[in-house]
Predict the structure.
Amino acid sequence: MSTHPAPSAAPSAASIFRTAMGPAFDSLHPQLQRRFSVGLASGEACTGRGVMDRIWHGGAFVKPFLALGTTRNILVPRTGRNVPFVIENVPYTDTYGRETVTFVRTFDLPGRSRRFDAQMVLGPRGDRVLDYLGTHQHLASDLYFHAEPDGSLLIRSGEHRFREGVVDVRVPELIGATAEVRESFDDRSGRFRIRVRVVNKYFGPLFGYEGSFRATYSDIRSCGVRRGLRPVREESRA
């Protein structure tokens, strides 16, 4: 396992993120290319360890939704500053034969750690990434990846859907939200920086966090997928 800077994965190692972005992937900072080349082809997993400078919430009305979401490891119900966290990006093949990459974030909040789980697969048309949220993948969202002029990465969410049994419905705008993630690499500090904002069209900012971390890489043949990292239930609907 190494913390030293490394070149991006070879173009032949087509991760789900490289596939979704196409040629724009090559415009990312080399360290972002390395991080988002995590996958079965590259044979690498990535673990980020760092500190969230701030975890914030919107008005009091969002607290019940955040508290409900935390029962399925969706969002984080508490605020905080200088919160240690870990993000685990591990590729595996899911029950339905799809390459999947974990985005499991653990926040070391006072009294009790909290998790925010997501599993990502390539969308059926190959032009976006499908993000399944939570331990039971009840929520799914389309993610669109864009390379910014400065080499940073911008991720925006699209339509959200709720799936449970025969239920498969679009989440209405009134109670839904749009997520925006910005990730960059600071050459001076050797750290990744991340900023997340979740905003409702009618009620404004709901939730977010910002901080930085260092990444280490490991061979998935030796590290595998640790117990508890995969969801309890996997959803086949794209």
About this structure: The mean pLDDT is 88.
